[in-house]
């Protein structure tokens, strides 16, 4: 198994690393403090082709693969997670369901704009009363005169309220099966459709420069042709999307974990205590060594999951392992980096202060750590 990246992947990694260091890092703190969405940064990412990385050129993409997306996410998250999650959600949750399950017409209509970064897509799965238990969907969709009529509420939806949001794919109960279980389908709702309203922007602990909102559907009507994939397969489709997305979130987590190492190394060489740089002290050296170990191990985990996915092999267990290991690494490294920085690490203006605030959601979003453990246990043959 080769331990290095291909020439194309390494070139992409270096390009995004440079962009994150020179275009994102110097300005993102201001966006973060204001809770403002970084439209200009997102536009530059679009011009670089980052939103089209894993999609074929025929759809306006770059003709790359999912691993390329993961490399970009890691490098962006070394500087800032708000920008990285905007890309991750726009690709994995916004465009990928259309690419995987949409009709030819849906692909030709939406993917070119989503791949260019001109527009963002979102996915409405989580509800106020259903997070990990996503099968407890309460939003309903009924067919009436050739249209889907949607009623319900979705919570914590990324990229759902920006000026460039183009669509939200929504899971809704569209009927009942013979055994009484809900039939859940995915339905595409263009932004601005009457009956869909964007709630107030959430005040979040972290990811303060990303867009996250509640969505309310009240008699929202869209054409019957806006069904994404097969009727009744919406939940199963999204489980596939989540398996892939967990690899992407793992990559983002590794980026945050590595960013903590980067900042701690810099600070350890600059900060003096008792007449010496703090990096001279073994306590700091061992802490940074543990941080690097976590980031390296988590990177290997998501590389492995991504390679299995691209080879067409089963990867559900490996994706869950990667997400669990990497989110733990991000949280642990953020805590250690904040400790190394002392009082400065408690300041929002410091990168590690933002890293600390951003890390916790990685143990929750796109499947909690508890859900990852359940998936791993199930893949090992333990009772579901």
Kindly report the CATH topology of the largest domain.
Answer: Butyryl-CoA Dehydrogenase, subunit A, domain 3
CATH architecture of the largest domain: Up-down Bundle
Written as H for each helix and E for each strand, in order along the chain, the element string is: HHHHHHEEEEEEEEHEEHHHH
Query: What is the global morphology?
Result: globular
CATH superfamily of the largest domain: Butyryl-CoA Dehydrogenase, subunit A, domain 3
The chain-level structural class is alpha+beta
Mean pLDDT: 95
* Total beta strands: 10
Domain Acyl-CoA dehydrogenase/oxidase N-terminal: 6-118
Pfam families: Acyl-CoA_dh_1, Acyl-CoA_dh_M, Acyl-CoA_dh_N
Family: Belongs to the acyl-CoA dehydrogenase family.
EC number: 1.3.99.-
What does this structure look like?
Pfam families: Acyl-CoA_dh_1, Acyl-CoA_dh_M, Acyl-CoA_dh_N. GO terms for molecular function: acyl-CoA dehydrogenase activity; flavin adenine dinucleotide binding. It comes from Streptomonospora litoralis. With about 375 residues, the chain is an alpha+beta fold. The chain has 3 domains: about 5-120, Orthogonal Bundle (Butyryl-Coa Dehydrogenase, subunit A, domain 1); about 120-230, Butyryl-CoA Dehydrogenase, subunit A, domain 2, CATH 2.40.110; about 235-380, Butyryl-CoA Dehydrogenase, subunit A, domain 3, CATH 1.20.140.10. Helix content is about 50%, strand content about 15%. It contains 11 helices and 10 strands. It has helices at about 5-25, 30-35, 40-50, 65-75, 80-100, 105-115, 235-270, 280-310, 315-340, 350-360, 370-380; strands spanning about 120-125, 140-145, 145-160, 165-175, 180-190, 195-200, 210-225, 225-230, 270-275, 275. The chain has a 4-stranded mixed beta sheet with strand order 1-4-5-8, with helices on one face. Strands 2-3-7-6 form a 4-stranded antiparallel beta sheet, with helices on one face. β4 (about 165-175) and β5 (about 180-190) form a beta hairpin. The radius of gyration is 21 Å and the shape is globular. The two termini are about 35 Å apart. The mean pLDDT is about 95.
């Amino acid at each position: 198994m080769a331990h290095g990246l291909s020439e194309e992947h390494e070139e992409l990694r270096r390009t995004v690393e440079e962009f994150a260091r020179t275009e994102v890092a110097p300005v993102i703190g201001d966006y973060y403090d204001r809770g403002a969405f970084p439209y200009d940064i997102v536009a530059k990412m679009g011009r670089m082709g980052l939103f089209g990385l894993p999609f074929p050129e025929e759809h306006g993409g770059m003709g790359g693969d999912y691993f390329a997306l993961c490399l970009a996410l890691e490098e962006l998250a070394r500087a800032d997670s708000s920008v990285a999650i905007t890309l991750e959600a726009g690709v994995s949750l916004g465009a990928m369901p259309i690419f995987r399950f949409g009709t030819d017409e849906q692909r030709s209509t939406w993917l070119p704009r989503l791949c260019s970064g001109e527009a963002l897509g979102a996915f409405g799965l989580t509800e106020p009363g259903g997070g990990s238990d996503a099968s407890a969907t309460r939003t309903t969709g009924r067919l009436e005169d050739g249209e889907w009529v949607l009623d319900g509420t979705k919570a914590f939806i990324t990229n759902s309220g920006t000026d460039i949001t183009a669509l939200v794919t929504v899971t809704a109960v569209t009927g009942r099966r013979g055994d009484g279980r809900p039939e859940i389908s995915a339905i595409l709702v263009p932004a601005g459709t009457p009956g869909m309203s964007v709630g107030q922007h959430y005040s979040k602990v972290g990811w303060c420069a990303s867009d996250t909102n509640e969505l309310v559907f009240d008699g929202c009507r869209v054409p019957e042709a806006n069904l994404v994939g097969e009727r009744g397969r919406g939940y199963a489709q999204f489980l596939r999307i989540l398996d892939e997305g967990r690899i992407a979130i793992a990559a983002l987590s590794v980026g945050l974990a590595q960013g903590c190492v980067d900042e701690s190394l810099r600070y350890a060489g600059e900060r003096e205590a008792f007449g010496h740089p703090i990096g001279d002290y073994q306590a700091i050296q061992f802490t940074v060594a543990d941080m690097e170990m976590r980031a390296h191990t988590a990177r290997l985990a998501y590389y492995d999951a991504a390679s299995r996915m691209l080879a067409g092999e089963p990867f559900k267990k490996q994706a869950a392992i990667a997400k669990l290991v990497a989110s733990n690494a991000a949280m642990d490294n953020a805590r250690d980096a904040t400790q190394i920085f002392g009082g400065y690490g408690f300041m929002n203006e410091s990168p590690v202060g933002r890293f600390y605030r951003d890390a916790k959601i990685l143990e929750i979003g796109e499947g909690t750590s508890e859900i990852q453990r359940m998936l791993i246990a199930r893949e090992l043959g333990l009772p579901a």
